[in-house]
Amino acid sequence: MNKHIELKNIVSLLLLILASTATLIAQSDPNILRYGSCDHGGKGWYTWTGSGSIKVESDPVGLHSGKGVKIIAEGNPIKGSASMPFSYRGEVTVSGYALTTTDTPTKISLQCFDSNSETIAWIDLAFLKTPGENTRFSKTVLIPENASKTNLAVNLSSTGYVRVDDLKITPTDLPDEPSSIEVPTVDEVTINRIKSVETDRPLIALTFDDGPNDLSPQYLDLFAQENIKATFFWKGRNVEKRPELAKRIVREGHEVGNHSYSHPRFNQISHAEAYRQVIDTQEIIEETTGVTPTLFRAPYILYTPKLMEILQSTGLQPIDCSVGVSDWHSDTTVQLIIERATSDKTQPGTIILMHDWSTKSLDALPAIIEILRDRGYQFVTVSELIAARK
Ligand SMILES: [Zn+2]
Question: What is the domain partition of the chain in residue ranges?
């Protein structure tokens, strides 16, 4: 037992040294990646710093919502750490493979801290294999029920090739409470979240969350001038606040989707409350505009199993995104938004997430439209994009 604790302390110390090394490198290394996820929770970002050739292969879309992120780390040696804060309970799984190239073990650790920097969950993996051998790993830690804010850190240290190809956080639902509202149930969730659409046609969907907003008219003017149809995911509360604007958006031919009533984190509300958030917003949008949304995007792209059941039973298609511009992040500039929206990740079938309250996104859009049109892309609504699926 003592030996175990001692070892843990040594590893902690090593990680600390590793972390400070990474910080030093962070200041000079131009390869440092700081990606935003496609939500705007302010907690969806993470940093990756380190030595070696490190590439984040995909946007960590929904990193904190049960989807994966691909971090490919290559080098001899590779040293680095990634960290991300999130605020709910659930399971965290890290998996991938390690290739040992010398007789020094390859080490990977996954740590979760609470808001007081106390470790609440921890995995250490060390691989010592015959050089040249692959070791597949997959480990899960459980975030305790009573944890509030959580920080997740992944530390990699290797003498060879390590590939973490899935880092997944699966949120847990709150226990059921007695409720006055009957929530429909489904036997099995058969719907899937759409992140992008497989299509041969050069189509892209621009999507805007959280409206209708005071800035929406300026977006509408731009879209009218450019003859573009976009998709707006609305908060029911904002539709109640700005009904005339909601009507204008629909009148001008844009698609509207449901983005909940008040933008909660769905793992922090009861099943009945979750149901209310969805159906109340459907009703408000219908009554205000005459249109019944068929699409839903969860706030913070945070889907729980129960939310998926609710969406299936109400006939709503969950929509994610494949490109996020992180216009919610204070460090994000207009130039960065342009770069993120027009990077190689933007392909036929891409769904781009922005917010129509962002002046930066508004300023970035004319350039984004021009660049993507030059590449032959056309802008369509999400439903049009889905209809073009091959
Ligand atoms: Zn939102």
Answer: 2-171, 203-387
